[in-house]
Each structure stands twice: as structure tokens, then as C-alpha cells.
Amino acid sequence: MIVKVPGSCGEFVQGFFHGEPILITCPIEKFSAVEVSDKNFSAETLPEKSELMLKKILHYFCAEQNFSINLQSELPQGKGMASSSADLAAIAKAAALFLRKDLSAEKIAEFATEIEPTDGIFFDGVVAMNPITGKLIKKIYLPEKFVVAIFDYGGTVNTVEFNRRSDFQIAKLGDNLNFDLIKNSALANQQILFKPHLEEIMNFAKNLGAAFVNVAHSGTVIGIFFQQPDSLIDKKISAIADKFDFIKFLTKTKIIDGGFYGKISARRRHL
Q1: Per residue in 127-152, pLDDT tens?
Q2: In terms of CB atoms within 10 Å, which end of the chain has fewer, N or C?
Q3: CA–CA separation, 160 vs 226, rounded Å?
Q4: Adjacent-strand bridge partners of 95
């Protein structure tokens, strides 16, 4: 059995709403995958936070580990791409399924936030959530389909140590994603984690036809979003890379629904 959870390209928005910290998830088609099997059992060593999540799940269900568990990820660490959140959620869901137990996204969020501030990419769709408590605040409608080019400023950020939140107050949180809100959130975060020439990159990308640019509020990546279809995306990505050679192009991917995916068929499956 394999459970996969998508990572993210930073956050669409992060700040405060009615005094409560929130982020709006930005799930992408890159995953952390956990395979659980009762064959060739061995207590494989997991990363510290993943090991802690597994122990929480076993304790919660009063169970012992009698299965092998393997974690693989397409997500770089310390970049603001929700690598740890995806790992933790995939570990929790896969272990619960193997034990034939039900574990909701809300409960997983509760466990995850006991370990670290968490990105809610394991909630279905795109959501606004509290990264400190794990509370689901609202589901957000994304009106278009997007391809995102992810660029990296370099280095890493420890999201546990870097637990500062933008004081950007979200005046209105509607059901539809407001692209001006994404820009405002990215620029407000410059006072917390500065990204050189961000406004210049935004303007250049807009002139190329990009819909908007977002950032990892506690990471090193930025995302440049293009509406699908766009036959010139690769040329536009090259133009951005040539113009701003201090950022490295990481990958081109799609915005997808958050949630849990399983290797059952080529289709998505809710687990």
C-alpha cells in the first residue's frame, strides 16, 4: 500500500485573519510517498519528525509496529515546499490504513501541529487553515487551472525555528482566491523574510503573461503562475531564468487538489 501527499509551492497567502494566524495552501503535483508492508518487516529508521508522528499514531491506536514503512519524497527540505508536512501526513495516514483504522485530515493536523507548524496540504482541495493549531478555517475555490514555475533563492530555512508570522492582516477572506491578496501577502512578508528584487520579478513575469507570483513565507522559493494552456511557458521560464540569474529554476508543475492519494490506479483516489 502506498499513500502520497502533495507538497506545496510556498503558500498562496499567509498572515492573520481576525487575529488568528492562517495560511492558504498551494498544493502541487510533487509528492511525499509512504509505502507500508507486512513483508520483510524491519524497523526502518525514519527522519526524527516522521518517527515521532509514527509513535503518536501507534500510541493513539494502542498498536505495535509490525509493518515495514518506507518514506520517499520528491520535495526538497528547508525550501518552503511543505516537505515535512507531507511526510508527516503520509506517515500518519498510511500507518492508520494498515491498522485498518480511520484517521481524518483534522486529526492528522492536530497531531502534526504538536510536532511543528504545519501546512494543510493534506486537506482536500485548497484551504485556509491555522498552521499553529491545525484548525481548518475555510475551503477556498481556485477559479483557474495553473502551471507553476518554481524558482529558488538558495539556502534553507528551518521552519520550526523560523516561527514568525507576517503581521499582514487579511481584511476579507472570501471563498474565491483573490490574486491581489496573494501579491499583498508576498510583499508584506518582505519585512520578515526578504527576497531580493521580488517586485521586479513580479513585474517582469506579469509582462510575460503570468497570472501572479507567490512566495514561501518561511522558505526560499517563489512560484510564477501561468494559466493553462500556455504553449510558450517554457520560453517564458527561460526568459525569467536568464533575466534573474540569482534565482535557480527548480521545476515546472501543476496546482492540484490537496489531500491523500493512493497508488491504486492512474486516477486519484480518496483514501
Answers
A1: 999 999 999 999 999 988 999 999 99
A2: N
A3: 31
A4: none
